[in-house]
Amino acid sequence: MGTDCAKGIEPMKHLKEGRKLSRTASHRRAMLRNLTTSLFEHERIETTLEKAKEARRVAERMITYAKRDSTHARRLVARTVRDPLIVRKLFDTIAPWYADRPGGYTRILRTRSRLGDAGEMAILELVKSPEQRAAEAKAREKAAKDAEKEAKKAERNKRILGKKKE
User: Fold this and answer.
1) pLDDT-derived band of residue 165, with 50, 70 and 90 as boundaries?
2) What b-and-e string marks burial along 56-75, b requiring 16 or more CB atoms within 10 Å of the CB?
3) How many Å apart are CA 11 and CA 57, to the nearest integer?
4) Over the stretch 109-154, which tens digit does the pLDDT of each residue have?
5) How far apart are CA 124 and CA 50, in angstroms?
6) 63-69 contacts at long range (C-beta below 8 A, 24 or more positions apart)
7) Angle (nearest 5°) at CA 162 between 158 and 165
8) List of long-range contacts for 69-72, beta carbons under 8 Å, 24+ apart
9) What is the pTM of this model?
10) Quick one: CA dihedral 129, 130, 132, 136, positive or negative?
11) Which helix (H) or strand (E) holds 55?
12) What distance in Å separates the CA atoms of residue 68 and residue 57, rounded to the nearest whole number?
């Protein structure tokens, strides 16, 4: 038995999962760490489809660890997510969103072909429940109203100060 590569027969691809993404192992590991950290920080990132598929594997594993909320799980997550603030956000904010969900924490949306090399781009985002989306929309509306009030107040103060100088 043995490999028959010299004869032109390719060996079977057993136990060789994952994409190489044209990078060395250390570069690939660092890139996936950075993508995962950015996903947890921003809750949505745009990257190539292949990178998104690989980063999804890492991110879903980290969320599953975070759902355990043990010291060992924190250490396992800290090996991949190097920013302590993001680790805290993952355990305190993101993991509780998925407490009752058995997997499928992320979504990949294909967006466009990149100009230049026609690479297929995709958005990798964390899946949120309708209640979470409604709460976020409400918070955005409140922030917009507050900003509008501040702008009106500043404009009024500016007019008042302008009249006093005359």
Assistant:
1) low
2) bebbbebbbbbbeeeeebbe
3) 26
4) 999 999 999 999 999 999 987 788 888 888 888 899 988 888 888 8
5) 11
6) 63/90, 63/94, 63/95, 63/98, 63/105, 64/103, 66/90, 66/91, 66/94, 66/95, 67/95, 67/98, 67/99, 69/95
7) 140
8) 69/95
9) 0.75
10) positive
11) helix 49-68
12) 18
pLDDT tens string 25-78 = 999 999 999 999 999 999 999 999 999 999 999 999 999 999 999 999 999 999
Look up residue 155 and give its two tokens. Answer: 């404009």
Which pLDDT does position 11 carry in this prediction? 83
Residue 143 is encoded by which pair of tokens? 């922030």
User: Distance (Å, rounded) from C-alpha 67 to C-alpha 3?
Assistant: 43
